[in-house]
C-alpha cells in the first residue's frame, strides 16, 4: 500500500449542540490513495494510547466515520450518523484514540445521489435497494485511505468502534490489526427504525433493536 504522511496538525476545540466540549488534534494528510480530503481527529490522550499499544498494551480506540451532511450537520432523523458521531467523540476522548472523518457521503455515492436514494426510499425501497436502483453498488465505501491514515499516525493496532463488519475486514486486508470490534449504542427513532433494521439484517451490523411486543 502506498504510504501517506501527516501534512498538518492543528488543535480545534469541539463543541456539540448538547454542550459537550473536548479538544481535538485535527490532522490532514498527503498521499491518500483516493485523493480526498479526509481528516483524523486525535482525541483524549491519543499519544499515550499509541505508546501503550506499541508496548503491547491495549490498542487505541478508533472510529472510521463516513461523512453524512444530513445527519452530522443538520441533525436528520433518517439515519443514526449524527448521534453515532457525538457518541464516538466522547468515548474516544475518554480512552484515547482517533476519529477518522471520511469524505464518502451516502456510502460512497455522494450527496446528490444519496438524496435521490432517499426519494426512492420514500417510494418503498430500502437503503441498499435504492443505491442499486440508481446504478451504484449497495455500499461503495473503500477504507484503504483510512488504513493509510492509521499507519501515518502510528496506529497499526486498533480497537474498532463500529457496528459494521466490513470496516474491520477492509482494514485488516490493508494490514491494520483490529484487536477488538466494539459496537456503538443504538440510536433509534421512529424515522430511522427501518433503516437500522435493514443494516442489521442485510449487512450484519451489530445493532440490537428492541423486539416488537
From TrEMBL:
GO terms for cellular component: cytosol. Residues 23-183 form the GTP cyclohydrolase II domain. It is an enzyme of class 3 (hydrolase). It comes from Paractinoplanes tereljensis. Catalyzes the conversion of GTP to 2,5-diamino-6-ribosylamino-4(3H)-pyrimidinone 5'-phosphate (DARP), formate and pyrophosphate. It catalyses: GTP + 4 H2O = 2,5-diamino-6-hydroxy-4-(5-phosphoribosylamino)-pyrimidine + formate + 2 phosphate + 3 H(+). Keywords: GTP-binding, Hydrolase, Metal-binding, Nucleotide-binding, Riboflavin biosynthesis, Zinc. This is GTP cyclohydrolase-2. CDD domains: GTP_cyclohydro2. Zn(2+) binds at residues 68, 79, 81. The active site is at residues 139, 141. Belongs to the GTP cyclohydrolase II family. Its EC number is 3.5.4.25. One of its GO terms (biological process) is riboflavin biosynthetic process. Pfam families: GTP_cyclohydro2 (PF00925). Pathway: Cofactor biosynthesis; riboflavin biosynthesis; 5-amino-6-(D-ribitylamino)uracil from GTP: step 1/4. The keyword Ligase does not apply. One of its GO terms (molecular function) is GTP cyclohydrolase II activity. GTP binds at residues 63-67, 84, 105-107, 127, 162, 167. Its cofactor is Zn(2+). The gene is ribA_3. It comes from the Bacteria. InterPro entries: GTP_cyclohydro_II (IPR032677), RibA (IPR000926), RibA-like_sf (IPR036144).
Amino acid at each position: 500500500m502506498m504510504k501517506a504522511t501527516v501534512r498538518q496538525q492543528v488543535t480545534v476545540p469541539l463543541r456539540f449542540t448538547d454542550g459537550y466540549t473536548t479538544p481535538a488534534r485535527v490532522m490532514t494528510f498527503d498521499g491518500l490513495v483516493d485523493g480526498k480530503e479526509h481528516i483524523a481527529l486525535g482525541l483524549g490522550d491519543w499519544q499515550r494510547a499509541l505508546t501503550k499499544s506499541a508496548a503491547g498494551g491495549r490498542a487505541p480506540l478508533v472510529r472510521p466515520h463516513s461523512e453524512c451532511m444530513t445527519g452530522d450537520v443538520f441533525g436528520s432523523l433518517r439515519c443514526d450518523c449524527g448521534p453515532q458521531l457525538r457518541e464516538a467523540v466522547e468515548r474516544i476522548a475518554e480512552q484515547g484514540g482517533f476519529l477518522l472523518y471520511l469524505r464518502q457521503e451516502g456510502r460512497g455515492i455522494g450527496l446528490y445521489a444519496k438524496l435521490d436514494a432517499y426519494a426512492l426510499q420514500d417510494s418503498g425501497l430500502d437503503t441498499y435497494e435504492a443505491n442499486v436502483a440508481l446504478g451504484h453498488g449497495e455500499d461503495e465505501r473503500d477504507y484503504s485511505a483510512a488504513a493509510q491514515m492509521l499507519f501515518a499516525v502510528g496506529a497499526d493496532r486498533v480497537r474498532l468502534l463500529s457496528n459494521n463488519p466490513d470496516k474491520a475486514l477492509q482494514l485488516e486486508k490493508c494490514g491494520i490489526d483490529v484487536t477488538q470490534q466494539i459496537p456503538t449504542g443504538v440510536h433509534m427513532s421512529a424515522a430511522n427504525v427501518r433503516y437500522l433494521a435493514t443494516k442489521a439484517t442485510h449487512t450484519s451490523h451489530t445493532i440490537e433493536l428492541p423486539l416488537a411486543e
